[in-house]
Design a protein that fits this description.
This protein is of the alpha/beta class and 463 residues long. It has a single domain (66-457), classed as 3 Solenoid (Pectate Lyase C-like). Helices cover 15% and strands 47% of the residues. The chain has 8 helices and 32 strands. The chain has helices spanning 2-18, 38-49, 132-145, 151-157, 246-252, 338-341, 354-359, 365-368, and strands at 21-23, 32-36, 54-56, 60-64, 67-68, 74-76, 81-85, 94-99, 102-107, 111-114, 117-122, 126-128, 164-167, 170-181, 188-191, 194-204, 217-220, 223-233, 237-242, 256-268, 271-275, 283-293, 299-304, 312-324, 328-333, 371-392, 399-417, 420-426, 429-431, 438-441, 445-447, 454-457. The strands form 2 sheets. The protein has a 30-stranded parallel β-sheet that branches. The protein has a two-stranded antiparallel sheet with strand order 8-9. Strand 8 and strand 9 form a beta hairpin. The relative contact order is 0.07. Residues 1-19 form the signal peptide. GO terms for molecular function: hydrolase activity. This is Glycoside hydrolase family 28 protein. Residues 22-75 form the Rhamnogalacturonase A/B/Epimerase-like pectate lyase domain. Keywords: Hydrolase, Signal.
């Protein structure tokens, strides 16, 4: 058996050594920043797919619309090479996908691995979405929608390309030193996929403004995913676990599971490590460690959902995290952003889009309450925080069996913990003003908080 394994490895190495390079220039590609290279790049990819080859580029800037990396192909974006996204939304074909928890047709990403096996997008070059035109479109549509009570629909109707999407694929690598910048929407979206590695990326979406919904890395109803060695500056959540929204997410019912996230610096975001708000399919066996956040990230550890989402989370392990000036160390909000989270179609709307109907499908109350349990958090160092905890769930489905160890938190306020059962703290140091303890709901069950650091108060009634 050992000899067979060695032989297989030698054969694979030989195949790799013989794999040809396919130069985009040979297919008419021009790195002048002006010529549209979509067809040339795709032709090179299609040729490389026949030999499990590598697509390469001479130094330059290659304007392009959506491209599709095929099975066996490595798209190599070397130092000195920029793939520059087209500003024309028509250069991103509409395709079946999932967007923000809903299955619907949506523009393809700039770089797509779509229903493929063993592919890679690597190199020390740049993938630049040039996304400001799409950000401006979003803000204009949202300005029109909000007075009509359609805040919830604006994210779905303002079509914007993601930067890199791995969809329904297996054995994919992204990274190797890539700079990912100015994405029109989410930056790296891993959806319905498995055995995916995102290792060695710098993400900067805050050039030419702060792009709306420019998440860093979204892992969406996928399994066996590794995220490592990332440096992230975005204008929404940085590291995000997702699993579907409301009735549609409950129908699909695919969890995100077996995920490791490690060695990430978040410089700017709306949330550091985030679960939700699309929680419908659930989360299992998630570990995140060696993360660092600073004062440009308002919440370090964030669980968010809504009373129509449903879903669950269990066996979640978060540890060795440093926060410097991060305002809120940990937040749990099960009624997040109601204007966005709850879809209600105004009576005067004619010809209701199909995805609006899907989003407005009622979810029974019992099915809509997300539940989280068996979460372990340890080795957390936080200084300069405004609040240590801002935690509230549902009285009917409390947050169960959260374990905390080796917390060292310095904050101006303790905050509050409500709807918590079986929470245990050990070796915890809370450096709080004497008049600002953690307020613990009277119906919660918590042990091990340092004496004098908490006070029991009646919990607010939750939905």
């Amino acid at each position: 058996m050992k000899q067979a394994t060695i032989s297989a490895a030698l054969v694979f190495a030989a195949v790799q050594a013989l794999a040809a390079d396919f130069n985009v220039r040979d297919y008419g590609g021009k790195g002048d920043g002006v010529t549209n290279n979509t067809a040339a790049i795709q032709q090179a990819i299609d040729a490389a797919a026949k030999q499990a080859g590598t697509v390469v580029f001479p130094a330059g800037t290659y304007l392009t619309g959506a491209i599709f990396v095929k099975s066996g192909v490595t798209l190599k974006v070397d130092k000195g090479v920029t793939l520059l996204g087209s500003r024309n939304i028509d250069d991103y074909p509409m395709m079946p996908t999932r967007i923000a928890g809903i299955e619907m047709r949506w523009p393809a990403a700039l770089v797509n691995v779509y229903r493929q096996h063993k592919a890679a997008v690597i190199g020390e070059g740049t993938i630049d979405g040039d996304g400001k035109v799409f950000w401006d479109h979003y803000w204009a549509l949202r300005k029109e929608y909000e007075p009509r009570g359609l805040r919830w629909a604006s994210d779905y109707d303002a079509r914007r390309p993601r930067l890199v999407q791995v969809f329904d694929s297996t054995g994919v690598r992204v990274g190797g030193g890539l700079l990912l910048r100015r994405s029109g929407f989410w930056t790296v979206h891993v959806c319905y996929s498995q055995e995916v590695t995102v290792d060695g990326v710098t993400i900067n979406n805050n050039e030419e403004g702060h792009g709306p919904s420019t998440d860093g890395i979204d892992i969406d109803s996928s399994r066996k995913v590794l995220v490592a060695n990332a440096d992230i500056s975005v204008n929404d959540d940085a590291l995000v676990l997702k699993a579907g929204r409301d009735a549609d997410g409950l129908r699909v019912n695919r969890p995100t599971e077996d995920v490791v996230i490690r060695d990430v610096k978040v410089r700017y975001s709306k949330g550091g490590i985030v679960f939700g708000s699309e929680t419908s399919g659930g989360f299992r066996n998630i570990e995140a460690y060696r993360l660092s956040f600073d004062d440009k990230t308002p919440v370090g550890i964030l669980f968010k959902s809504a009373h129509t989402r449903g879903g669950w989370g269990e066996d979640i392990r978060l540890h060795d995290i440093t926060m410097t000036g991060t305002p809120v160390v940990m937040r749990v909000n099960m009624n997040w952003n109601p204007a966005y989270s709850y879809a209600a179609i105004p009576a005067d709307v004619k010809d209701v889009p199909e995805h609006w109907k899907v989003m407005a499908t009622p979810v029974p109350k019992e099915q809509g309450m997300a539940r989280f349990q068996d979460v372990k958090v340890w080795n957390i160092k936080a200084s300069g925080a405004r609040s240590a905890f801002e935690v509230a769930a549902f009285a009917q489905k409390p947050l169960q069996r959260f374990q905390f160890d080796q917390l060292d938190i310095e904050a101006k306020g303790g905050g509050y913990i409500r709807d918590a059962q079986g929470w245990q703290f050990a070796n915890t140091r809370l450096r709080l003003p004497a008049d600002a303890p953690v307020e613990v709901g009277a119906d919660s069950n918590i042990s091990g908080l340092p004496q004098g650091s908490f006070v029991v108060r009646p919990a607010e009634k939750q939905g």
